[in-house]
Design brief:
Elements: H1 23-37, H2 63-72, E1 78-79, E2 87-88, H3 97-107, E3 128-130, E4 133-134, H4 136-145, H5 164-174, H6 178-183, H7 186-193, H8 207-215, H9 235-246, E5 248-252, E6 256-257, E7 268-274, E8 280-288, E9 294-297, E10 310-313, E11 326-336, E12 341-343, E13 347-351, E14 355-361, E15 364-366, E16 370-378, E17 383-387, E18 393-395, E19 404-410, E20 418-428, E21 431-442, E22 447-452, E23 456-457, E24 461-468, E25 474-479, E26 482-485, E27 487-490, E28 493-499, E29 507-517, E30 520-531
Parallel strand pairs: 6-13, 15-21, 23-30
Antiparallel strand pairs: 1-2, 3-4, 5-7, 7-10, 8-9, 8-11, 11-12, 11-13, 14-16, 16-19, 17-18, 17-20, 20-21, 22-24, 24-28, 25-26, 25-29, 27-28, 29-30
Helix pairs in contact: 2-9, 3-4, 3-5, 3-9, 5-8, 7-8
Amino acid sequence: MKEPTVNFVSRFCFISRIRLPHRKAFTALWFALSLALGAFPGRAGASPGADPWYTDVDIHWSWPYVKVLWEEGVADGVVYPTNPEIAWFYPDNSVTRAQFVVLLSKVFGLPPASPEVPSYPDVPKNYEMLYGKPAWEFIESAVLDGLSLVDPGHRFYPDSYTTREDAVAFLVRSLDLEPYASSLTAVEIESILGRFSDRQSVSPNRRNAMACAVQLGIIQGYEDGTLKPGRLMTRGEAATVIARSCLIRFSARKDVFSPDGDGVDDTACFDVAYLKNRRIRTWQAAIVTEALLPVYHFNKSNARGEPPPSVTWDGRDNAGNPLPRGLYYYQAWVGDVGNRTFFSVLKPLFLEVHTLDAWLDPEQCSDGQTLTVVAETVPEASAVTAEFASGPARSLYSPDGGRTWVLEATVGPPLPVGLQPVDVRAKFPEAERIRTLYFERVQAAWILAAVEPNPAAWGQALRLEALSAPSVLGVTVSLFGEDTSLTELCPGSWAGAQTVPLGLAAGFYPAVFTGMTDTGPVSATVWLEVRDPHSEEIVYVLSK
């Protein structure tokens, strides 16, 4: 059968961008693990189940998977009274909805349920899915455990055949992947299913489940590039997909955890369940990156024996180093005494760390200027505040619902002059993060200058004038190699005079006005044009 084609699609639409691992990476990982534990089943090690062995499966392609289910005692075939020593599985017959759900119930080890009133009007207590095989209690156990796709009180249509897309929906629900499947966007679904030529044939209410199953390798496409979602699934195919997906189940109790030391969801807890008749001799479970590179192994010593019922992970790699936030995947596998390996479905897990990133713009402000405080929080914070040196905290607002936060404040008294802190505080549910930023308040310093007349001729008197901010304490002008101190006529208004030297070469000369403040100088330059008085008539123009 064709190896699953897997394209992992961006799962979170915020700062992080999730890269897509290549199909070959998935195949290589699967094959390496298979070789390590002997994943290819042999014919040895059979222990009869409830039925005699199915002789019609011996030369069928699905026999390894049917054999496993038979050994576990969860497979159901037909035994005729005329020859009770022979059973028939009919692997090429279409599987009914009842047969598929009963197989799931048995593989998951659900206890039979017998409510007083049947959940479905078309599944009475004496309903048989095959000759001599009652199914009502197992279908009721699926209803009780939430595996069924049909709400009680409606018709179940137990004898209707199961399409590939219906089987996928049953599997996605039974493997606790429905929330993940539901979170896939229309764009992501189209990206996952886009390589199949018949993707439009997937029913609208099955597209999420089908995309999830393709993405995680639960279901495979055909070699002709199709999914055939409406094709009826055979009993051999049903046995294969359930055996490959459900014999061992490795599930995180939460899909997101946050190992940031705040005491809330600091570890991820995983439950391990598998069929007990497998006679397990070794096990392993791993956390892998988006590129499917293993970063953590749960059975570090490769100890033999059965896996524990649960394991935990603290977000660190095999060397004990904290891993960055992001999307990871996890998977477990067990090997039995027959050198066969059984894998759980690859599932996503998001490692979340409460983060606060913040900055100020600009980092130096004059009075009257706007200071912008920007914060970004992951995940969404419930509130973000900024506390200035001059008073109580001020609240930032979020334009996008909790990830980006903004505050605009006008700089001025009572803020002190100089460098000062701003404490930005983000509040998350059960967590809080603080960043201390710094900006400098500087008093406004500016100067406007003019030289008149401009142009000027030899011996002509020049008026040097300037307007300045109140913080300017004195103004000097450097022109023709001389410095002239201006007189303050009134607050912020300065004036002085100078004469154009005789015989000065015609050209442009800089008049540099320098204002002195407590925090340093501020300057402005006026270019003065000096003309030869013997040239054409001078036209006076003021320039800055």
